[in-house]
């Protein structure tokens, strides 16, 4: 077994001596246990999860679905970029959800603006679907559709080759379709990327880099 357990461990004794887990000598990717826990992955607002080390290719068609829960009005949800300008990005800015796509000719953005500034940042679960179909993009939040016109209809493919960064990204990494640098604080679950009939559900515990992210453990109330 080469990966850590997704669980809470307490009251451990060795040779009848109780271990003090309140003041460890060193600690890595361990959080406190919550009294009430929900399904989901907790992002503490300091880091990110990195998926697909070899690079993810968005290309012409992609559908992204996820659920999020936050009380913060800013936060990066997801970004996939290239060394050039091609990229996609999902982020929360001032309580709005933005879906950016650059197929090489220029960035276009679909924006979902809720009626109240904090209505998406109320600590409750919200469903997000971001769809890129060649040059067309759309965003559906809790069943509400937001679309935008794309003047660059000849440019249809986002030729990305970098990892998928969720909840933020490292300082030395370029993201061409994210305007914010704020790491996400809250919980995410059911991240799925679909191309045609191929749907891939991502498990954060299998990320190749996790910083400030705690898979399979979402506190029942915001901390």
UniProtKB/TrEMBL annotation:
Residues 38-218 form the Laminin G domain. This is Laminin subunit alpha-1. PROSITE patterns: LAM_G_DOMAIN. The lineage of its organism: Eukaryota, Metazoa, Chordata, Craniata, Vertebrata.
